[in-house]
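User: I'll paste a sequence; please echo it back and then give the predicted structure.

Assistant: Echoing your sequence first, then the prediction.
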Amino acid sequence: MDIICMGEMLIDFTPGKEERSFICNPGGAPANACIAIARNGLKTGFLGRLGNDDFGKLLKSTLEQNHVEVLCPELTDEAVTTLAFVTLYEGGERSFTFVRKPGADILLDTSDINEEMIQNTKILHAGSFGMSADPSREAHFHAMKLAKKLGKIVSYDVNYRNMIWSFEDAKAVVDKVLPYVDLLKISDEELDFVGGEANIPNVMKENQISVVIETLGSKGAKFFFNGEEETVEGHKVKAVDATGAGDAFWGGFLSKLLMSGVSSTADLNTDLIRDALAYGNASGGLCVQKMGGIPALPTKEEIQNFLK
């Protein structure tokens, strides 16, 4: 397997054309990234809990239809599938209201993870959303520690949502996570988690992080690697919905690294990272031109045609 993405998969209710109407779309940051990578023709697995309800069944079917291996196939009766209601603003920006007290995603347990599962992948990808409460928080730590011990690449998305938990609580968890991270994704709005952009090289050195990618929205993304910093410009497109755009970007970035033969941090170099960012920017640029997270994720062919 090329990558395991762990954490939340949920239902995004995005605004419909009629007033006060919503359209049900599958979503959740790690699931979005997982399917984005699968649409690039890579072997992916999703590690997360879904509720034994109509929404959970829809999400499981969505993974299967996109050729993603469902690593927690048994649906849980202990909580309903997590829901997120999306409010859109001019320019495609959005805010979220979550129904999750608890949601099924937070029930991911360390017993759902085994060494063979992690051994058989090249990259483990996770994010902070699934670490806002136990048992999912402990499961995330367990998986990342195991991946680090086995020499796998660990990817992490800060992905802070203030509707879920406070900045102080989230930062405490992120601080504990960073020593296990090889590839860190952080937006320009989340820089307080690392003490500001100027402090990124210090955080990298302290935690032995190989690459930090700072996303800049429509302006593209900036990489920090081996003492170098460089911005790769984004694409000017008409954005209608930014839901899932960051995940499309990160899915594209990780896909390009994998397609370039990267299987350990020793394989990384400046040219590969620059090319992967350009590919990720194209993936994100395509995503924002359509409505709804997973339905808007582009294929490898669409990205390649866009770059031409």
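Residues 3-9+27-81+105-307 form a domain with the UDP-N-acetylmuramoyl-L-alanine:D-glutamate ligase fold (CATH 3.40.1190.20). The mean pLDDT is 94.
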